[in-house]
Design a protein that fits this description.
Blueprint (H helix, E strand, L loop, with lengths): L3 E3 L5 E3 L1 E7 L6 H14 L5 E4 L17 H17 L5 E4 L8 H7 L3 E9 L2 H11 L6 H13 L8 E4 L5 H12 L7
Parallel strand pairs: 3-5, 3-6, 4-5, 6-7
Antiparallel strand pairs: 1-2
Length: 189
């Protein structure tokens, strides 16, 4: 049974376990999140999944919000209401998270959110190889530069609750480890 929290008005709000996958560009955030969703589905655990970079896609971007940060969380708030009505009680998210203070936007969009952040890690050479493969036929330079920058910033940055290696192993294994670390799945299931 999930615990409850109180709203500012004193009304009970059900706690919502949220698992956020983060890491540098190319770390496999979306792939591992999708595998985590599959594993939860197989275990019969009601949940929903959203890639925050995808739900932020909108052009033009307002000058006051060049990364569509406000838009992504407004979209997430609407989506969470729909997911909740559909029966989801947990939420899996993926996004680059450079600072833990950005979690406040998820708390606002998902009332009762209890967020666990999983940092996916891989060697820079693996990140760059994944990006080149993923961006075949397009100019990958922005993604390559971003991956190099984020990989140099994130280890030990204090952003995550847990770190999971996502290199030289199936994405399902990384997802299983993350779900176990978050307490969402155990070996008994």
């Amino acid at each position: 049974m999930l615990e409850t929290m109180n709203s500012p008005a004193g009304n009970p709000i059900p706690a919502v376990p949220v698992l956020l996958f983060t890491g540098p560009t190319g770390a496999g955030k979306t792939t591992v999140a999708m595998e985590a969703s599959r594993l939860l589905g197989e275990a019969g655990i009601p949940h929903a999944m959203a890639d925050l970079a995808v739900i932020a896609q909108c052009y033009p971007t307002p000058p006051s919000d060049p990364w569509n940060e406000r838009l992504v969380h407004e979209n997430l708030a609407c989506m969470w209401q729909n997911f909740r009505r559909a029966g989801a009680s947990r939420l899996i998210l993926s996004r680059v998270l450079e600072d833990r203070s950005l979690l406040r936007h998820i708390h606002a969009a998902v009332p009762g959110a209890k967020i666990t952040v999983i940092m996916l890690q891989a060697r820079l050479s693996a990140l760059l190889e994944r990006i080149r493969s993923r961006e075949a036929g397009r100019d990958p330079q922005w993604y390559l530069d971003t991956a190099a920058y984020l990989a140099s910033q994130q280890p030990g940055s204090g952003v995550s609750d847990h770190m999971v290696r996502n290199e030289n192993r199936p994405a399902a294994d990384a997802a299983w480890e993350a779900l176990r670390l978050a307490g969402w799945l155990t070996a008994d299931l």
